[in-house]
Design brief:
Elements: H1 9-49
Length: about 60
């Protein structure tokens, strides 16, 4: 596959904007993935605070 080479200044500007947009989408996807993992860790920590006492989960 050939590499795209913009010929005019306007094409180069459009291409640069498109590359920045693609980069921003990648960053947003990485941030969303990190946020989902962070939320899962928070839920796990919160659930650990409410573990009932005793081996079977009940008293007596």
């Amino acid at each position: 596959m050939r590499k795209f080479r913009p010929k005019t200044a306007a094409d180069r500007l459009r291409f640069a904007r498109l590359e920045r947009l693609i980069g921003a989408c990648g960053q947003a996807a990485a941030a969303a993935q990190w946020l989902a993992a962070e939320q899962a860790r928070s839920r796990a920590r919160l659930a650990a605070l409410f573990v009932p006492p005793g081996p079977s989960g009940g008293e007596g």
